[in-house]
Amino acid sequence: MLGPRAARPLARVCSRQTSALTVRRFLFSPRTSNSTRATQDFDLNRLNNKRRDYERNRTAFLAAGAVAGIISFIYTAWKLKKALELKAEKQDGSAVKCDSPIPIDTFKTEAGEKRKVVLHDEEGREIVPTGNSTVPVFPRTLDLSLPGTDAPTGAPIAASISDNAGTELTLVGLGMRTVTFLGIQVYLVGFYVATADIERLQHYLVKKINPLATTLIPSEKDALRKALRDPVEGEETWDSLLQKAGCRSAFRIVPVRNTDFHHLRDGFVRAIQSRSGRDKAYGDEAFAQAVRDFKTIFNRGQVPKKKELLLTRDISGKLSVLYGEGDCPDKGSRSVMGAIPDERLSRLLWLNYLAGTQVASDGARDNIIEGIMELVERPTGTVATQIL
């Protein structure tokens, strides 16, 4: 046993060792604890980021799959619809068949001059390509029973082109009516002139450029083309021609998508009111009543695509509206929807397609002008004979 004296130094040594151990634990233990916690926090953040990236990529992948599925479904349904329509056309025989593929262009260039492309279907009828897959062709001539079909005095060929079956009209030009800045196609429109009255049309336009000529040379044709394309001069020219020349004419409208009479009526009425509002000559009650009667004519339902709507103008300017079957029109299938005697209404409606600052179809207006150039380059009175 150690005595008190021997035990006292030993106690002091143990006390110093304990104090040193306590100091070391105090200095190093907190640092070790903080380092472990930071490592744990770093690992949790990294795992959380990985999980978030996984969820985001998974969501994007599922969304892409859903969009691809919807697109493929719509495309398959569209292809099936087209196949069924093609099969239906083949079964009912309404599709136009030609020996060669139908071209896209309505005009071709021969010897530096534009000529209208004219084809023949399997029944021998003359047709003109439109460049549209839904309504690929327009008939070159129409036979219509129009009021005022009596032949002009002194016309030697009138008996051949106007009889009990109706009046023959010849296509001058055609084009597509589009709406909105997206250029959504609504209907094709073609301008027809009575074959017997083409001489009057030629005479008026040729004399406008050269009073002594019976036909126009290339430089004179350029002058006429420029005049017809000018918004002011073109409108004045057609306005005077429609009032004085007495040419029977028609606009053939065929929708390329399903539409309705109200939509067509609204477009016509806006064009009429836009032009009539600039002239006090249209401010009387008679014209206002004519517009109301015109609206009443179109108070109907749907107009399926490929159906035919005809706006006709006789010698006196009377407007008649006819509705028919479409691609292969038969005069017996057309029904008269109504008529407006006021010449001013049909004249404004015609100007909506032929001239002015804004027209219903720029393509149709330009195509009609090129058709006019094809007429005035031939001697006056010879075009109808060539058509026959």
From TrEMBL:
Domain of life: Eukaryota
Amino-acid biosynthesis as UniProt keyword: no
Coiled-coil ranges from the UniProt annotation: none
Domain Chalcone isomerase: 167-369
Family matches, as SUPFAM superfamilies: Chalcone isomerase
A GO molecular-function annotation: intramolecular lyase activity
Record-annotated membrane-spanning stretches: 60-78
Cross-referenced Gene3D superfamilies: 3.50.70.10
Cited InterPro entries: Chalcone_isomerase, Chalcone_isomerase_3-sand, Chalcone_isomerase_sf
Signal peptide range: none
Pfam families for this protein: Chalcone_2
UniProt keyword terms in alphabetical order: Isomerase, Membrane, Transmembrane, Transmembrane helix
Protein name from the UniProt record: Chalcone isomerase, subgroup
Protein source organism: Moelleriella libera RCEF 2490
Lineage: Eukaryota, Fungi, Dikarya, Ascomycota, Pezizomycotina
